[in-house]
Structures are given as C-alpha cells and as structure tokens.
Amino acid sequence: MDRLISVEEAKNIINEQQIKKKILRVPVQDALGKVLATDLYAPIDIPAFHQSSMDGYAFSFKYWKQEQSLSVTHEIPAGSKGPLRVPETNAARIFTGAALPLGVDTVVKQELIELKDNQIVIKDPSISLGDNVRLKGSEIKEGEQAVAAGTVLGPATIGFLCGIGLSEVDIFASPSVAVIVTGDELKQPGTPLAHGEVYEASSAMLSAALLQMGINRVKTYYVKDNLDDTIIQLQNALAFADVIILTGGVSVGDYDFVVRAAEACEVEKLFHKIKQRPGKPLFFGRKSEQMVFGLPGNPSSVLTCFYEYVWPALRSFGGHEKQLKTLKVPLRISYTKNNQLIHFLKGYYDNDKVTILHAQESYRLRSFAMANCLVVLNEEMKTYLEEELVEIHLIPTYG
Ligand SMILES: Nc1nc2c(c(=O)[nH]1)N[C@H]1C(S)=C(S)[C@@H](COP(=O)(O)OP(=O)(O)OC[C@H]3O[C@@H](n4cnc5c(N)ncnc54)[C@H](O)[C@@H]3O)O[C@H]1N2
Ligand code: MOO
C-alpha cells in the first residue's frame, strides 16, 4: 500500500530532479518566450552612422549664422549610400533615417525653414549643435552587452536584437512532451455519445496548456484500458519525449493500468498518492533523464495537477521561473472543507480578494473555465472565514 505523502514532499521530489537543459540555436524571430542561454553583445555600433531623426535640412552649425541663407546642393533619402561629404557652407536636403555626410552636423526640421531658389533660411531661433541627429553608437556600442543570459525574450527584445543585426540566438529548448490518454469510455467530441461514453476533454486541454507555454513538440497517444496497450504506448512515448503525461488509469480500479505499465517500462516510481484534493492518486516516476506523470483522470484533477506539478517541471527545462505566481489575499466569502487534505480550489481573484467558485468536484471543468487562480487551503484548517488570508496560485493568462 502506498504511503500518502504531503504536497510539500511531492513538490520537493519533483524539484530535486536533475534536468539537463538543452541549448538550441534558433532564428531570433522564433525565440518568443524562450530564455536566452548566453549573453549577447552588439556586433557593431548602432546606429551604424550619424543619422537624421527628421525630414529637413542638414548643415554645419559652426559655419552657419542666424538669418544667413544656405544653398541646398545635395539630397539624401534614407538608405542612400552618399554623398559622403557636403561642403560645410552648404546644406543638404535630408530625410528621417538617412546618413549624415561629413561636413554637416545638425538638422533643422523642414517646417522651420524658408525655401527659395534652392536656398534655405533657418527660422528656428533655438536650434543648437547636433539637433535632430542620432549619433553613431548612441543606442549601443560595438562589443557592449545587449541582453543578458536568462532574459525571457519578448517582442521588444526580439526587435532590439534584430535592430542590432543579430539573426540567431541560443536559447534553452522546451521539452518534448507525450500525452497518453487512457480510458475505454472516451469518445472524441463532434460525434454522438453511446450510453456509457464520455467526451474526451483532457488531450485538447493539455495541448492548449502546453502550447500556451511555448511547447509544441507534443505527441498524443490514446490507450484502451488494458495493460499491454498501456505498456506499448508508454514505450513509444518514452522513445520520443522528455516528459510523459498520462491521464486516467492511475487509481486503484481493476481497469487502472498506469502504475503497472510504468513498472513494466522500468520507470522508477518516486511517489504515488498525495494528501490533497483533487488529484490524490497522482503518480510521478523517472526513467533516466525522463519524467513520467500519471495524472488522475477526472479532467479537473488533470488540469490542477498539471499546473501544480507538471508545469514547474516543464518550465525548468526551458530555464524559466518555476513556480506559479503566488499571492496571499483575503477570502471574499467564507468556505468550509470537509477533510484533512490540502485543497486546490478553483478561484477567481479580482479587486485584491478571491472568491472560491462553485462546482469544485473534480469531474467538473465548468468553474475551471471561469477561474483565474487556484486557492490553496491547508490540511489543518476546516473553516475559512470571510477576509481570512489564503494562498492563491495564479493560472497563466492568455489572450
Ligand atoms: N475506490 C476508489 N476509487 C477511486 C478513488 C479511490 O481513492 N478509491 N479515487 C478517486 C479519485 S480521487 C480519482 S481522481 C479517480 C482517479 O482515477 P483514474 O486516474 O484511474 O481515472 P479514471 O478512472 O480513468 O477516470 C476518472 C474519471 O475521469 C473521466 N475521464 C478520464 N479521462 C478523461 C478524459 N480524457 N476526458 C474526459 N473525462 C475523462 C473518466 O471517465 C472518469 O469519470 O479515481 C477515483 N476513484
Ligand atoms: O482526487 Mo480526485 O482527483 O477527487 O478526482
């Protein structure tokens, strides 16, 4: 008979597992949400040349006097490769982003000049040296650190890296994941149910949660409730994935084969059964570098155990912060639980308080669909009063 372990022990066991993070070189534009594995440095000065920040006229501040007209002898659109020099006594028509030639150092906006016969008179009494010019290297200098290892790459970082000329980055690879869904009763949605059948909800739900984490190397296997089939698909999954997630078949019923299949596949059992609700029969094992989670089949237990136990393990492969964001907040309405287990309850957190939702039973996803957090109630306490502080774990958001 398995000893029920505490939530803390279970989390520690998972947390202590050594993980070999894989480094992958990818195009910068494919690195959204990934963690940078190495420091990055600017390969050149950016901007790579002195650059106009306005549409206007470039001139030499030193050689110009108020009210003196300047003859416009050149035109320089953005991207133009020349001219490389303009006489100091002249002006050049210049556009935003274009390179300043030698001989000029200041740009006046086109709104602040008078143009006649290709001569300009500057009507900007406050203009000073270097106005409207972005200096070479003012964003970043060649060799300067651009982004530190450990940074999570967001849209702005991706833009910044492209802007300094980097096309590839080394990131920590997301793990490959196999989802094995067990159950004779399961039927894919979109077809009518026969008596006794149940619509299969967990594979799409887990794929969505994985995709939301940026994990897309996912294979899904469907298994009938028999030992041989479960062993074969677990072997297939072990040949492919870093992390294997089984759903259902992990309890004590005559048709629950996950624990036996894991044993047959030489997966070392690290725990089975936790003092918690939902998800009491959660199984966790390991085969060399691979992790195997057996999630209790009720869909709400599947998702709760996924966020509480699988999510942190998956995140560590990618070098990410491991725990769900945790807060202590007051309860909006009192709540009584009926046993000495830790409860993870579907909750809704807003305006600095949390409401424990209805429909907490683990066969029900209805309130999970409205939840934005899991409320953690500890083993000892039975009744939690209004305004009592409780721990909540925020569910990652999307959209
Ligand atoms: N005698 C006992 N029976 C049960 C116990 C127990 O301690 N003693 N624990 C209960 C708890 S708690 C849970 S949780 C379940 C876990 O059992 P399994 O992991 O073996 O899950 P299944 O029996 O395969 O399925 C449970 C339930 O969920 C439905 N299900 C399963 N997979 C899906 C899916 N992909 N999509 C939608 N629904 C799914 C399944 O039809 C069952 O209704 O055991 C209790 N029993
Ligand atoms: O613990 Mo089970 O996960 O109640 O359904």
TrEMBL record:
Keywords: Magnesium, Metal-binding, Molybdenum, Molybdenum cofactor biosynthesis, Transferase. Its EC number is 2.10.1.1. SUPFAM superfamilies: MoeA C-terminal domain-like, MoeA N-terminal region -like, Molybdenum cofactor biosynthesis proteins. Its cofactor is Mg(2+). Pathway: Cofactor biosynthesis; molybdopterin biosynthesis. It holds the Pfam family MoCF_biosynth. InterPro entries: MoaB/Mog-like_dom_sf (IPR036425), MoaB/Mog_dom (IPR001453), MoeA-like (IPR038987), MoeA_C_domain_IV (IPR005111), MoeA_C_domain_IV_sf (IPR036688), MoeA_linker/N (IPR005110), MoeA_linker/N_sf (IPR036135). Transmembrane segments: none annotated. Residues 178-316 form the MoaB/Mog domain. It catalyses: adenylyl-molybdopterin + molybdate = Mo-molybdopterin + AMP + H(+). NCBIfam families: molyb_syn (TIGR00177). Belongs to the MoeA family. Catalyzes the insertion of molybdate into adenylated molybdopterin with the concomitant release of AMP. PANTHER family: GEPHYRIN, MOLYBDOPTERIN BIOSYNTHESIS PROTEIN. This is Molybdopterin molybdenumtransferase. It comes from Olivibacter oleidegradans.
